[in-house]
Amino acid sequence: MNYISTRNNQKNFTFKDVFLKGLADDGGLFVPKSIKPLKKEELDNLKNLSYNHLAAEIIYPFIGDFMSKDDLISLISKSYSNFRSDDVVKISDLGDLKVLELFHGPTLAFKDIAMQLIGNFYQYHLDRDQKKINIIVATSGDTGAAAIDALKGKSNLNVFVLHPNNKISPVQRRLMTIHEESNVFNIAVEGNFDDCQNLVKAMFNDEKFSKAINMSGVNSINWARIVAQSVYYFYAYFKIGNGHPLSFSVPTGNFGDIYAGYLAKKLGLPIDKLIVATNKNDILHRAISGGDCSQKKVEETNTPSMDIQIASNFERLLYDVKDCNSEVTKDVMAEIKNNTYKIDKNDLDKIKKNFVSEMLDENETVEMIKTINDEHQMVVDPHTAVGIGAVRKLGLEKNCVVLSTAHPCKFPKVIEDAISKTENLPNSLKYVYDRKEKFELLSNDIEKVQNALGAVSQLAKQGIAIVQDNYETRIQYLFNNYFLKRIRKGNNII
Q: Which of 140, 234, 334, 342 is 20 to 30 A from 408, alpha carbon to alpha carbon?
């Protein structure tokens, strides 16, 4: 399968290129050049497969140039061997709704499902090609922990995770910062998730630097994650669809998880509506309901994984809406960056054929957690509560599945506010409170950042030295003297 960038559809890439690069050099996102929907008989052949074998059948057409199917099956089995559910995911009843539990992996969030597989993809590539690589990740809470767990201790790679300081839950932070493996580096940035994400994008966009340190990324923009996440939409449909199209409600921040559902629909899965559920950082709700793409100040909420105003994966949808015209897409993204873009009626009508949206504020989220517990004796995390609340507001409970994206124990304060008790960590993870945390705090204030040394080329050479030396003692120099300064000057790339 060939891939192209949303900002240049003339140059072809392999899956290996797409996986290792994460973000295209032109700032665009990778998408398949074409997608062939599965025929009814092909879908029928998938419906009785185990999760692992279903994953192999869905994923292999997208990566066939990267490894054999036998190797893929082996890596999938290895990736999910430490999940607390034998079927990787679970489906629970909530009245007319179904809840797809995606948090049974090692870090209690849906991110584990793709990340464990990606970690083994990296090791497969590095072992085969004798390469070394540096992986840079921005996180709003869950991605970082999942990436670290998937990549810790693996040979020939380092993983750097940037999280917004004091803007994620203590459990989310500890699941990242208690690890002692020498290839793991945690960085708390004085800013919000968008600041962290912009840092990562700027690093990727600096071609000299990214090539110098052999840089890769595992944020939701990485196509491998999108493909891996599309599998559980198929799994849910085959378990409970009964031949009827299903709608899926997805707590949404960076638009990656719900785009995976859109991919499943493009592959022929009978999906009715994809429900974008947001908190009061509601740029996606405003965009889908009325075309408003204006970015506002990020507000801290009790659903921190959705405290985002730059939903990177939305570019992939806009590319489709613009009839796969990369030049037009590039212009649109420039307008979004300048905060001047509004989706026109024709394009909005195209979006609404597949998507609807709704938002819940913090009080509504707490009340929804309480209501669900009172009505069904079920405790859900605040993001899942937003997904359920969106469905109820829209009146779409029939034939609908809500993606439950995290274990409620990761958000003890919100749960206690709602039902006057907390959920305990699973026994296998109680050690996270006993271990010492380890992370570096970096300022996002340009006034506090040291002046950069030399030109970009010189800094890139210094970067190589840093990579070959000691990240732990030199990392602050690298970030302060280049990336933070560059972002604060407005050189971030959307």
A: 234
